Amino acid sequence: MHHLSIGIVGTGPAALMAGTALLESGHNVHFFDQLKAPARKFLVAGHGGFNLTHSEMIDEFVNKYDSELLRESVRDFTSADFIGFLKVIGIETYVGSSGKIFPVKGVKPIEVLNAWLDHLRKRGAEFNMEHRLIDFSANSVVFDAKGTLKEQVFDRIIFALGGGSWSRTGSDGKWVDLFRTKGIAVRDLTASNSGFELRSNKKLHVLEGLPIKNCKVYSDRIEKYGDTVLTTYGIEGAPIYALNAEFRHGQSIFIDLKPDLSVDAIRDRLINAKNGTEALKTMKLSRGAIGILKMYLTKEEFLEKEILAPRIKKLALPVRGIRPLNEVISSVGGIHSLAIDTNFQLHAFPGIYCIGEMVDWDAPTGGYLIQGSVASGMKAARSILGQS
User: Sheet holding 5-9: strands in order across?
Assistant: First the structure.
């Protein structure tokens, strides 16, 4: 087998997974990153609960992605495959009550990253930090390395430059203009997995921090159960993130504050109670749920049981927007699907691949983002291995 020299620009999970497969097959892999340390977003993402992937069945799993290319990539490199790799590098995992898969309790994100980096370095990986991408051609990449221009030539090049969220981690989207100058189709990066900003004539800050647990957020097409929390700008939480795409596509968004009761059951409780306050207490509506009802109903509507009952089941969320790109968990947009083949290889630059969040695909939180990234990295690596 001919040993290839491969340059990977980026050090997130997509990049590390591609490098892992290539190094384990004997190729020479050189990583580059504009920051001083690798995989900063991987670590920051772990601060809120480090779910690496998800345990659900593959047919349900792949439907979380809006891209056929990602669905096929995850079928080829499943959560079980990723868990198996993590075990090889010494990271044991467990399935949480929601089906999310985490490192065993006590293992921190930095420990997972260090185990992975050690695995790569033992196989000869070279890490070049503080290298900012300036330009590239068919077989070379130009970096600004602490003020010095450096051109590197490789047999294959993999770009894993991330999207546009959390720029402090290196995922700043500044690569977009460069790729467009090369004639590569790139969709604008926009926020995904974001909280909703809500319109209101009242001050939303009075509800800040109040949770709405066990609710259902839905459109006419999809629904998501879970917990949300009210904020100074509106509402956030996994069910909200899951409805981001529906909002972007112009769908109205609703919240069911009591999914386990029918509207008739709610109406009966309201009618039979001594007063509205007692009825809401017997239904165990939280302060957050009551607060948002009062926020978006008039006093007369709130006191009218025939109006209140259906609103508890279907309260329209007056969404005026999503949060700024730099504040959100992930972005959608990036390298257009028409610009790459089924292995993430650029049509305009054979031998150059784009993987991870820089490609235009979307998925919810809960392990799907990391799984999609590592699956795309593995897909590209296997394509290169098939050519070597």
Answer: 126-128, 28-32, 5-9, 156-159, 352-354
